[in-house]
């Protein structure tokens, strides 16, 4: 039947089978004939097949060499380790023996149920220290075919030409696929107009926009409905945008196309967090218990961002992850893992009850294979630039054992500095962005224990022996409402006092007169503010009144201690500076039903434009990586700013002229439209003139009679002010 169908189809196409040599037809190699599926729903990992069929076998090297009578004991140790990582097949562990000495050869083979279990076992056990002399070297059995095919003579790798927008597929030793999108992921930083990007979510849509402040409007970059099922988040250096989905998380990048770069499988993921250098992505999921009395089960996974490989996962009850932290979900604090400062992403820490667990990312195992035991520890915080961990331990034993704040060097775990604190009710730690200072806000009980007062312990991290200063407010009974360090600077601001009009004070850790003591720069009295927002470049700060203050804004120059502007964004819920410190976004999100949308302001408080969006959920500026310029070069640029700004001043003038011309054209079009409308009604009025006369028995209405108008100037006087003066007359003497 099939042959008949083929003959019929061939006749329809005019093909003479007698002239066709079937032996000359060659199909492309491969099951798919070289045609790659474009179905994005297909995971490449699921389609991966192993050439030799031994993808579920691992080889463990560097085992102890033991005699025959110890085989069973060694095999039991190996089984105990690897049964935790997968299911070993029956008779799936084989340990070769030297026929002469009847001793083991120092390696063995382990066969798992599937390649995924074998891959997971290789990743998690490679580098495992059985003891000081035996560190596991674990490889996939299939790797040996590849290693045996390596040529004896070294050949220089071929340089491939750069092709923007293409994919380069690299098969790693572990058989994971690394899909590296070859578009320049930093291209957005080279924008000729030096603009910044921001992402917004409203309704079902997620949009990436350029902030085109010169033209006083945003310029669309990329828009997609239902791009995420929850929220979106930029990576710390702005390279990636992560979205959350039922199946897991995905990262996107590029200048304007925002192509998906990688997916990370974690069902029902709720939260994500990047390491500071963007090497790792942490995902979080919690499973609600069937019994309300039980606690939620938490699962956390750590992925390599570029390869998508899961480096480690953590599981446990929410109680195990609920100690300390600025925020939380389902009973667990977030972020659960705190990353050490710097871009090397070398360490991360987890706080548990009476325990601080510090992991290193080379093997994703505990430093020294054990956690730090710290009784009653409730909070930890890393330096933003160094591997220094600060921790807070409250009072114990009813006050007999004082509270303490300590600084610990990692990985040595050496305590660098400690400060005992007495009569403490609570502490909050604030690191300065350059890691030079640590401010600890301390709430202390009064002698009667009926009330508290606040002060600060200021650590100078970079100075010898880490000196500590104590700072108390002029009125130590003032409640501290907000605290914020100046980015990359030596100053900080404090809102203190009683609502609704507290005071705002500015302090400096370093002044021209005294570089080693904290000093107060000034205090602003009775301000409608409850939040502080420093510019990323310092110098400027916004004193904001959110929530009950209905969006009061004061743009303040700290160098000059003067207000540049005051404004209001009614019901504002969010305030965020762009990464350059030139512009500020204020937003009203959907927590309010009205006035949803965002506004863009200049650094000195000029409203540039406002965009209204129904059901507005989120706004986030795209971060910029640190500048490659040295501090000396940045200072030189600042000194010669006029020279560099000439180009942009000329461009600004061109834009201003363009906007003026556009305004003129708009006004001209409106005037022409009005005149056209007037002429139409005049023409209609004239056409109906005779009909109106007939309706009035030939009389012309008063409105249609010609009326002469006379323009007159009218002068009037108005009393503006009255001043009384007593004049002593000469005659009064």
From TrEMBL:
SMART domains, from UniProt? RRM
Q: Report the Gene3D superfamilies cross-referenced here.
A: 3.30.70.330, YVTN repeat-like/Quinoprotein amine dehydrogenase (2.130.10.10)
Q: Where in the cell is it found?
A: Cytoplasm
The source's domain of life comes to Eukaryota
What is the protein name given in its UniProt record? Answer: Eukaryotic translation initiation factor 3 subunit B
Q: Which CDD domains does UniProt cross-reference here?
A: RRM_eIF3B (cd12278)
Q: What is its main location?
A: cytoplasm
- Name the Pfam families for this protein: eIF2A (PF08662), RRM_1 (PF00076)
What is an example of a GO molecular function annotated in this UniProt entry? RNA binding
GO CC list: eukaryotic 43S preinitiation complex; eukaryotic 48S preinitiation complex; eukaryotic translation initiation factor 3 complex
List this protein's GO terms for biological process: formation of cytoplasmic translation initiation complex
Subunit relationships: Component of the eukaryotic translation initiation factor 3 (eIF-3) complex.
Record carries keyword Lipoprotein: no
């Amino acid at each position: 039947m099939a042959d008949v169908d083929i003959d019929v189809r061939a006749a329809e196409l005019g093909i003479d089978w007698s002239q066709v040599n079937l032996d000359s037809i060659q199909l492309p190699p491969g099951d798919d004939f070289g045609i790659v599926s474009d179905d994005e729903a297909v995971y490449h990992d699921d389609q991966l097949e192993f050439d030799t069929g031994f993808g579920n076998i691992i080889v463990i090297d560097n085992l102890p060499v033991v005699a025959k009578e110890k085989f069973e004991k060694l095999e039991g140790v190996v089984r105990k380790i690897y049964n935790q990582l997968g299911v070993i097949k029956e008779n799936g562990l084989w340990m070769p023996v030297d026929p002469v000495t009847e001793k083991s050869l120092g390696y063995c083979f382990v066969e798992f149920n599937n390649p995924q279990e074998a891959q997971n076992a290789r990743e998690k056990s490679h580098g495992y220290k059985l003891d000081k002399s035996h560190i596991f070297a674990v490889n996939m059995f299939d790797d040996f075919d590849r290693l045996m095919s390596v040529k004896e003579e070294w050949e220089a790798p071929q340089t491939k030409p750069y092709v923007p927008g293409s994919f380069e597929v690299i098969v790693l030793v572990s058989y994971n696929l690394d899909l590296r999108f070859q578009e320049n992921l930093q291209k957005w930083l080279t924008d000729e107009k030096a603009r910044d990007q921001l992402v917004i979510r409203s309704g079902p849509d997620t949009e990436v926009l350029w902030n085109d402040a010169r033209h006083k409007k945003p310029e669309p970059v990329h828009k997609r409905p239902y791009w995420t099922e929850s929220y979106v988040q930029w990576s710390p250096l702005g390279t990636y945008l992560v979205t959350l989905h039922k199946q897991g998380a995905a990262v996107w990048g590029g200048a304007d196309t925002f192509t998906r770069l990688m997916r990370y499988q974690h069902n029902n993921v709720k939260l994500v967090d990047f390491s500071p250098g963007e090497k790792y992505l942490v995902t979080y999921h919690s499973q609600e218990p069937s019994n309300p009395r039980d606690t939620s089960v938490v699962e956390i996974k750590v992925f390599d961002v570029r390869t998508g490989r899961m480096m480690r996962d953590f599981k446990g009850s929410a109680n195990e992850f609920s100690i300390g932290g600025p925020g939380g979900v389902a009973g667990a604090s977030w972020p659960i893992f705190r990353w050490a400062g710097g871009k090397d992403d070398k360490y991360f820490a987890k706080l548990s009850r009476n325990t601080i667990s510090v992991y290193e990312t080379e093997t994703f195992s505990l430093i020294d294979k054990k956690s730090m035991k710290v009784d009653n520890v409730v909070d930890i915080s890393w330096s933003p630039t160094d591997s220094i961990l600060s921790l807070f331990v409250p009072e114990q034993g009813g006050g007999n054992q004082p509270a303490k704040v300590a600084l610990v060097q990692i990985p040595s775990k050496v305590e660098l500095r400690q400060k005992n604190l007495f009569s403490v009710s609570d502490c909050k730690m604030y690191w300065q962005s350059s890691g030079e200072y640590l401010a600890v806000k301390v709430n202390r009980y009064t002698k009667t224990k009926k009330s508290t007062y606040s002060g600060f312990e200021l650590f100078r991290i970079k100075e010898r022996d880490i000196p500590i200063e104590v700072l108390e407010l002029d009125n130590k009974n003032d409640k501290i409402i907000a605290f914020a360090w100046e980015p990359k600077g030596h100053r900080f601001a404090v809102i203190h006092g009683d609502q609704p009009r507290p005071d705002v004070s500015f302090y400096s850790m370093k002044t021209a007169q005294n570089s080693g003591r904290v000093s107060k720069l000034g205090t602003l009295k009775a301000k409608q503010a409850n939040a502080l927002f420093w510019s990323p470049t310092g110098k400027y700060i916004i004193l904001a009144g959110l929530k009950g203050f209905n969006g009061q804004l004061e743009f303040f120059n700290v160098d000059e201690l003067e207000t540049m502007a005051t404004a209001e964004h009614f019901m504002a819920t969010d305030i965020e500076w762009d990464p350059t410190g030139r512009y500020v976004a204020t937003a009203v999100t959907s927590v309010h039903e009205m006035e949803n949308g965002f506004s863009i302001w200049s650094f000195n408080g000029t409203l540039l434009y406002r965009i209204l969006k129904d059901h507005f959920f989120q706004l986030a500026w795209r971060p910029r990586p640190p500048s490659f310029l040295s501090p000396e070069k940045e200072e030189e640029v600042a000194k010669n700013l006029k020279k560099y700004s000439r180009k942009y001043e000329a461009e600004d003038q061109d834009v201003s002229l363009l906007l003026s011309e556009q305004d003129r054209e708009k006004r001209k079009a409106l005037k022409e439209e009005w005149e056209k409308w007037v002429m139409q009604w005049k023409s209609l009025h004239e056409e109906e003139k005779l009909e109106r006369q007939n309706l009035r028995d030939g009389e012309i209405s008063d409105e249609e009679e010609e009326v002469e108008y006379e323009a007159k100037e009218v002068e009037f006087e108005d009393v503006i002010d009255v001043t009384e003066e007593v004049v002593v007359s000469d005659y009064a003497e």
